[in-house]
Write a structure and sequence with these properties.
The structure is a single chain. By secondary structure, this protein is an alpha+beta fold. It has two domains: 2-124 and 295-306, Diaminopimelate Epimerase, Chain A, domain 1 (Roll); 138-288, Diaminopimelate Epimerase, Chain A, domain 1, CATH 3.10.310. The chain has helices at residues 33-43, 74-95, 146-152, 181-186, 245-257; strands spanning 2-11, 20-25, 48-52, 59-64, 69-70, 108-113, 116-123, 126-130, 138-141, 165-168, 172-177, 206-212, 223-232, 238-241, 264-270, 278-284, 290-294, 296-306. It has an 18-stranded mixed beta sheet that branches.
């Protein structure tokens, strides 16, 4: 039998059972693509990560949804950084055991994924990654009118702040800025309209709806944002993601594309309506580098046995 240890994590979690759940396999040597996909379906989370050696970074990560492999995703990146950091610290401790020294965790790793090399670092209990885009964020106009987009999400055209945009800082998603937090809360994809929902480059129907939350009580340094992320499941039906790091990075791309003031610091609240409150931190510096951060909480470990 082959043994594969895994960890269960909550990413962007301020409390034990908040954030976005994630499963990370500590090593995937010997697993076939089909087995990785089957394990992702077995755990039935939005993403499952498999760690492999890399000759370009601290480690390589392969990210699978229940139906396909992803080039990049945000909360898997932060959860994987947490696990890789601990594995590196353990390896260092073992190599220095004879000297009696106990090295600290490095708290800084690089991760290879299909979208490129992603740098991640831990500062004051928050893991942060730099969006893997190698150039300016890729921006495209939405092929639908504002009215058509509003109809898909059960909204009025007047609820939209501006034209929806396709944004790609690692994976492409449809970003829809709304005029109010109330509109974000009211949004509900209409099942009868799913065939009109435009797919992204991977054939997935995804959308990130957000609004500025001037009434929120939070960090005075950060502008407050309320967001929701919807996606059509393989086989039909719509799910809501509790915390979406890749979409948060794309919000940084949207910020740049709409020529808003830089540098900028934002705090994003997501997931309350699916009872998984998530808190994400977005920073865009004057050089237009996009960083996304959040807390990672480990809640369990196990081992999968395969023949």
């Amino acid at each position: 039998m082959r043994s594969y240890p895994y960890r269960l994590l909550n990413v962007f979690a301020e409390a034990t059972f908040g954030g976005n759940p994630l499963c990370v396999f500590e090593h995937a040597d010997g697993l076939s693509d089909a087995e990785m996909q089957a394990l992702a379906l077995q755990f039935n989370l939005s993403e499952t990560v498999f760690i492999l050696p890399s000759d370009q970074a601290t480690a390589r990560m392969r990210i699978f949804t229940t139906g396909a492999e992803m080039p990049f995703a945000g909360h898997p990146t932060l959860g994987t950084a947490y696990v890789v950091n601990e594995l590196v610290a353990q390896s260092q401790a073992q190599s220095q055991a004879q000297s009696g020294a106990q090295p600290d965790a490095p708290n800084r790793v690089t991760l290879e994924c299909k979208a490129g090399i992603v740098a991640a670092a831990l500062v004051q209990d928050i893991w942060t990654f730099v969006a893997p885009t190698k150039a300016a964020p890729q921006i495209l106009s939405c092929e639908l009118s504002c009215q058509q987009v509003a109809t898909i999400f059960g909204l009025d055209e007047s609820d939209l702040l501006c034209e929806p945009l396709w944004v790609n800082t690692g994976t492409d998603q449809l970003l829809i800025a709304l005029n109010s937090v109330g509109a974000v809360q009211r949004a509900q994809p209409d099942g009868a309209q799913l065939e009109h929902w435009p797919p992204n480059s991977m054939g997935r129907r995804v959308a990130y709806l957000f609004a500025f939350d001037a009434a929120a009580q939070g960090d005075a340094v950060r502008q407050q944002i309320r967001s929701r992320y919807f996606f059509v499941k393989p086989g039909g039906g719509v799910n809501e993601d509790p915390g979406t790091g890749s979409a948060c990075a794309n919000l940084g791309g949207w910020w740049i594309a709409t020529e808003r003031d830089l540098p900028a610091s934002l705090a994003i609240s997501q997931g309350a309506q699916v009872l998984r409150p998530s808190h994400l931190y977005l920073d865009i510096n004057a050089e237009r580098q996009i960083k996304v951060g959040g807390k990672v909480r480990e809640i369990g470990r196990g081992v999968i046995q395969l023949p």
